[in-house]
Amino acid sequence: MASSDSSEPKFRRRAEERPDELLDAALALFVEQGYAHTSVAQIARAAGVSKGAVYLYFPSKQAILEGLVQRAVAPVAERALAQADFAQDDMRATLGAVLGVILAGLSDPQIFAIPKIVIREAVVAPEIAEMYRHAVLDRVLPAAIELIRLGIAKGQVRPVDPELTLRTIMGPVVLHLLLAEVFGIRPERGIALDALVANHLDILLNGLFIPDTGTRKDV
C-alpha cells in the first residue's frame, strides 16, 4: 500500500510536467529547423510521447507556439506593464525601467527565441502574427500608449502623438531584430540587445547632436 501511495504523486507530477516537456521539445525543433518545417510528429518523438498524446495538451502546432508565447513572452510583458504602473510618476525612470524589464527577459535565450521565431515565420504564416498580436501586442500597446498620454497630461512629456511616439520608441528594437533574424545582417558585436537599448535610451533622452553652446559661427 505504501509503495502504491508513493507512486501516485510521481505519476501526477509527470502528467503535470508533460506540457512543459512538449513545449521544450517544440522550442528546440522550432529553433533548429523552423516552425514551418517542424511537424507535430517530430515534436512527439523529441518529447518521447505518441503524436496522439501531444493532442491531449495542444490541439494544433499553432497552439504549441501559442503555449510557448504564453509561457515565456507574456509574463515579461506583464512585468513590464507592472513596472510602468509602479514608476509612472517619473517618465524618464519609467521608460528605462520598462525597457530594462524587457531586456532582462530577452536576455534569457529560451525567451528570446520566441519573438525570433515569430518574426521569421509570420511572413509566411500570417496566423502566427495574428496569434502573437492577440496574446501580447493587444495587451501591451494600448497600455503603453496610455502611459505616454499620462506623461503628456502630467507635463513630463511634450505634446506628441502618443501612438506614433510609441512606434518611434519601439522602432529601433524591432528593426534591429528584423535585420538580424530575417535579413541576416548582424552588427560585428552580435545582437547585443543591452548595448542597443542603452544607445537607444541615450539618443532618445539626450538627443543625437551635441548641444549648440552658441560658440558656432555660421558662415
What's the CATH first level of the largest domain? Mainly Alpha
| CATH architecture field of the largest domain | Orthogonal Bundle
Order of helices and strands: HHHHHHHHH
Largest sheet: none
What is the β-strand count?
0
Report how far the terminal alpha carbons are from each other.
96 Å
| Chain-averaged pLDDT | 86
Low-confidence stretches: 1-13
| Total number of helices | 9
Find the structural class using helix and strand composition: mainly alpha
Label the overall shape: elongated
Number of separate structural domains: 2
Proportion of β residues?
Answer: under 5%
Helix content: over 70%
What's the alpha carbon Rg, rounded to whole Å? 22 Å
Note the main attributes of this structure.
Tetracycline Repressor, domain 2; Arc Repressor Mutant, subunit A; 2 domains; elongated; 9 helices; 219 residues; 75% helix; mainly alpha
What does this structure look like?
By secondary structure, this protein is mainly α. It folds into 2 domains: 1-59, Homeodomain-like (Arc Repressor Mutant, subunit A); 61-206, Tetracycline Repressor, domain 2 (Orthogonal Bundle). Helices cover 75% and strands 0% of the residues. It has 9 helices and no strands. It has helices spanning 2-33, 40-47, 51-57, 61-87, 91-106, 109-121, 126-153, 162-181, 193-206. Helix 2 packs across helix 3 (51-57). The protein is elongated, with a radius of gyration of 22 Å.
